## 1
Amino acid sequence: MIESKRRLLFFVNGSHASAAAVRAQLFANRFDDNWEIRFCYRPARKWQGILPFIQAALSFHPQLIYVIDTAYTGVLSGFAAKKILGCKLVIDSGDVAYELAKSTGNYGKSQLALINGVEQLALHHADRFVVRGSFHQELLSQQGIKNVEFIPDGVEVERAEIVDASNFKKSLGLEHYLIVGLVGSMEWSERYQMCYGWDVVEAMGMLKDEPIAALLIGDGNGKAILEERAKALGVSDRVKFVGRIPYEQLSTYICAIDACISTQSNDVVGMVRTTGKLPLYLAHGRYVIATDVGEAKKVLPNVGWLLPYQGVRDNLYPQRLAEHLRLLLQEPQRLQITAKAMQVAKENFDYDLLGQRVISMCEQLVSR
């Protein structure tokens, strides 16, 4: 008798090209032929995805639904399908959604109530709740929630190409500079007047007399604001904004950066995170300067540097960052950590490792 395949359906709270979709696909690629796997991707208008998601589940009849991110489209659809079909439900969260929404100041009371309700539904009704920071797992355990798996943001270490970026640096006119930089979404917070990269721009304003330049990779409504700030500080010639770069070209840009920045706020929002950027930097052998918060706190010693950070926006942090960059100018040997950084990435964040954890979790759930 031929055993039928197990059926797994991913509900992706994002488009085909989103970070959520990449995570789902990289997990799916590691399942064997005993699994039949399908994907549903959320449309631009979130509510329009609920009915198609449920219809896809009713048509496919999966034994397991895996929801990537805790936005309401995937969570509500997954909960409804679980009730109708009796399938297992995994929900994978990269943040504490309600606390993150509150901190931005961009949501009204009704929106915050919806976000909180959806997050609580996910926490209490998923068969497994996947978190990407070990502190998040500890926090939920203290709240009595035990069905939690820690599977951090990851990277395909073997695909991270270490390239000679000297010609690229020359094309930017930065061949004689120590380059500090980051990859990130520059979405502006009106409440805190900041976004990814704000601290780098402010630090550059304190380093006008030093051969240090910045390379900021990413887009968002905060990019233009940071560009204006760099101009006001008189450093726009040494702060390069290159916008969003296709993934296949990213290695050249990352390898052009001598010190990569990973700044997380010192609150519950920052504490629960890994972020996909940290594994990406390490897989490319980069020296990372991070705030002493979240998963970076556990993996960075000996392959980078941790700096103190207070609250959500620490106005003194750019000064600490500037001081450390001056130290790197004086002691450039600190930057020679390529092999160590890659090893840390492989031991903690490689998708081959993380994928096996996901497969084991899914097999246990389905076998029940």
Note: The chain is about 45% helix and 15% strand.
## 2
Amino acid sequence: MASQDNIMFMRRAKEQLAGQWGNAAIGSLIYIVIIAAASSIYIGELVLYGSLTFGYILFLACLIDTKQNKLDLLFKGFNRFVETLIAGLLYSLIVSIGIALLIVPGIIAALGLALTFFIMADDEKISGVDALKMSWDMMNGHKTDLFCLWLRFFGWWLLCILTCGIGFIWLYPYMTATTLNFYRKLRYGTY
């Protein structure tokens, strides 16, 4: 994918979130607060990460596709707790091992598995392990594309840090919607 695609993914995400920034921020705040609270106990974050990330993607996809604010979707991942738990644990384990090896393998692993929960949110019958495999296969030859896309948000990350993290409740839905557009383009050829 070209650099122009990245600009289009970002522009499309802004269009999709137009009029929905408040709802997206509320959903993001709930997601971030729960993940932050769970991370105070390391095992808590490991257990909740998969289910909450799956639910957050469902929530945001519904918000941008239908303009309906369904906060209950944030917790929909608990209906598929075992699959999302396995996917979250394996994702964390693989990326952690990669980072321990020399950081770069961890980044490559994170990029290769980045679409796992988008795939699971898109296909309710797929298992966590199969979603991880599918993400790795889909990202073959596209890891650099996603890295460059996420790199475009670096300045926004710095600004969010300067706001003591408050800006993340708006940046996170923007990045997630942009990544959703990347995923849809990769999987379906359109977004």
Note: The mean pLDDT is 94.
## 3
Amino acid sequence: METKDTAEIIHAMAVRARAAAAGLRKLTTERKNEMLLKIADALEADRAAIGKANDEDVAAAKANGLSPAMVDRLTLTDSRFRSMVDGVRHVAQLPDPVGEVIWRRERPSGISITKVREPFGVVAVVFESRPNVFVDTAALCLKTGNAIILRGGKEAVRSNKALADCVRRALADIPDAVQFVEVQDHSAVAEMVRAVGLIDVAIPRGGERLIRAMCEAALIPVLKHYKGVCHVYVDDKANLPMALSILDNAKVQRPSACNAAETLLVHEKLAPVFLPMVRAWAADRGVTLHEGDAGVEYLSLDLNVATVAGYREAIEFINANSSHHSDAIVTDDAERAAEFLRDVDSACVYHNVSTRFTDGAEFGMGAEIGISTDKLHARGPMGLEELTTYKYTVTGDGVIRS
């Protein structure tokens, strides 16, 4: 497909999304919740068709030599499907941030100012592999009154098409509130992030290469995280069984996730005792240990290991080498933990907790639209509030400025 045709397709979708957003803005919370519950019911009814499409994508991915991490992200297991549907219903139960009064002030001039949450308008999401992202993001955007345009990777095109058809049928009254870009030409993404005046914000969910390409092409705001290089630091005042349990969860539970640990830092005083435990654990769990791979995101059963002179050196190491996503300290020393939580410059910092908790559902946000390592507008898991902006309404009785 030629670039001109792609540009026309994306422009037309963005125009329809803008019109849909105007309608969504007027919906009550009750109406939006009804739409979400209808989507959840439709997904359950279409489980067989969606599963068949996903099976075809997974088979093609394996035949094309996709990495195990990518295949894992692509696979829509029964438990993930159930979680996806439950996530839609959970979003329906969450408070609606739209219309929330952030603050109200009466000024000496006689004006009354209210700062109130409102939708962005139109959100574009570009994602790779995970089909559940389609439904998660659609649910969050609908709840917050945003129209959404989604573009998935070619490896999941059958799965995403099946999900899109299902969701749009459930939204019979306003189907253009959720649109799926079937065009696989890379220029489609560039057109989306250049749609000034039609698309308000873009959110990439994928690898660093995709994110950088979007940012370089963008003329609209992009909320992003480049990668998840997460650390677990084990202090010499740590409970060792606890430390090993946290490490195991952070690395092994789902190594392909962006919040999985990629580097283990160990206090040098503890190394003679703890590192043999780590090597035995790694051999048992199939983890390959590396040295000197600071800053590497493996997304696999690989783990970089380094020793540091203490918790302050760990803080320096993390700030220099992490992606500012999620980093943890394991220690029984409250003062060291407090200093770590204060000084590590990451979106999420943990004390005696696995980094795997960086997740919208675990944070009580419902399904998340992504995890931001930016510092402007949103940071960390992005839920409903992060999909809103705000405006000021100013009222008075013929007030003029002197």
Note: The chain has a mean pLDDT of 94.
## 4
Amino acid sequence: MARPERVKRVCKEPGYTCFVPQGTKSKNDWITLTVEEYEALRLIDLEGVSRQECAARMDIARTTAQGIYNSARAKMAECIVKGMELHIEGGTFSICDGSAGCPDCTRTAGI
């Protein structure tokens, strides 16, 4: 029996959920990036935090964070190279309540 999937903590949901390359003909081919993959990309590539810090903020193991990050990078590369739509949705996550000490989270614990 498989282990239940752990809920990953994200600071906030993405502001945009779909990206379409200019000049594409087919609207049928797309890749879905989960919200936790988006969060891993945001933390590691945009904010420049380490994989260890990313894992701590998402409340998961470092190896899990690395796997999520690798999956996200592969999906992004495929979208760019093949000119596919990117949809950001789904996953197993909860929104941060401020208790993780996230410097970008405007929420405070207990609210």
Note: The beta strands are 8-10, 18-19, 30-33, 85-88, 93-95.
